[in-house]
Specification:
single chain, Rossmann fold, two-stranded antiparallel ribbon, 9 strands, binds NADP nicotinamide-adenine-dinucleotide phosphate, SDR_fam
């Protein structure tokens, strides 16, 4: 090798939250398939370990509502890789379908903790390294629920609208650091746990969410869009992508056969 020969390129490094199931897992899997070094983040270590074994992602158990765990994750990634190229904030979710008049404090607090504060904590922790990178990316997985409210959606709408607002503020604040900020906002996605968790483990009620919809989005449909957005040349920013199944013309209009 001559002195001027280029250093062998190292794989870009991503931190993907929500990687134990659904959209996050599918995204971690696909990004790894593109040759990235992927830290797969969620609380359930057993699921992350299985994904690591199967795909070669790095399992990194972390509760994003606990500051010390987020700091430890950041320190680990930087100690092992010395850099981070992309942070994909996919952890999140909904609890309950109560109308505002019946809202349960604990459900609303949970939705804020995970969707809003969790996303903020990860972003804050990794921001210095993303700035230093010079071509960093943050992708936040919000929702159609971040754009249109619906009856029984108040708590989730409020949390996802907040996550959307934070995403816009971040884009404005960090453009001087060349940070690319992407928001992906899916409609109806048939993932294994989202509706089950929202509806307190009631499997029949969860099935009714997707009943008669021939082709709701799958985790992998959304993962493809996330990975496409993150692997585009860095100066191209898909700053807000709304992705719905064709059968869902609007949040309130879903064709069921
Ligand atoms: N499914 C839909 O229709 C839909 C539509 C639009 C947007 N979304 C959004 O898409 C994202 C993924 O949802 P999904 O449907 O794929 O599945 P999901 O079952 O809701 O998955 C949620 C993920 O978040 C992780 N998580 C929850 N609390 C956490 C915590 N305290 N710390 C770290 N990770 C935590 C979970 O992992 P652990 O339990 O292992 O921690 C899991 O991997 C969410 O932000 C959701 O709001 C979903």
């Amino acid at each position: 090798m001559t002195e001027t020969a280029p250093v062998a390129p190292t794989a870009p490094v991503a931190v993907v939250t929500g990687a134990s199931t659904g959209i996050g897992e599918a995204t971690a899997r696909r990004l790894r398939g593109e040759g990235w070094t992927v830290y797969a983040v969620a609380r359930r270590e057993d699921r992350l370990a299985a994904l690591a074994e199967e795909t070669g992602v790095i399992a990194a158990a972390c509760d994003i509502t606990v500051e010390a765990e987020v700091t430890a994750l950041r320190d680990r990634v930087l100690a092992e890789q010395g850099r981070v190229d992309a942070l994909l904030n996919i952890s999140g979710g909904a609890r309950g379908t109560d109308r505002v008049g019946d809202a349960k404090d604990e459900d609303w607090a949970w939705m804020y903790e995970v969707n809003v504060l969790g996303t903020m904590r990860l972003t804050r922790a990794f921001l210095p390294a993303l700035r230093e990178n010079g071509e960093g990316t943050v992708l936040n997985l919000t929702s159609l629920a971040a754009q249109r409210a619906y009856e029984g959606g108040g708590g989730y709408n409020a949390a996802k609208f907040a996550e959307h607002a934070m995403t816009e503020a971040l884009r404005l604040e960090e453009v001087e650091h060349n940070l690319r900020v992407i928001e992906i906002a899916p409609g109806l996605v048939h993932t294994p746990e989202f509706s089950l968790n929202r509806l307190g483990g009631d499997a029949e009620a969860a099935d009714r969410v997707y009943a008669g919809v021939e082709k709701p989005l799958t985790s992998d449909d959304v993962a493809r869009v996330c990975v496409f957005a993150v692997t585009l040349p860095h100066h191209v920013d898909l700053d807000l992508v709304t992705i719905k199944p064709v059968a869902q013309a609007a949040p309130h209009k879903v064709i069921r056969r």
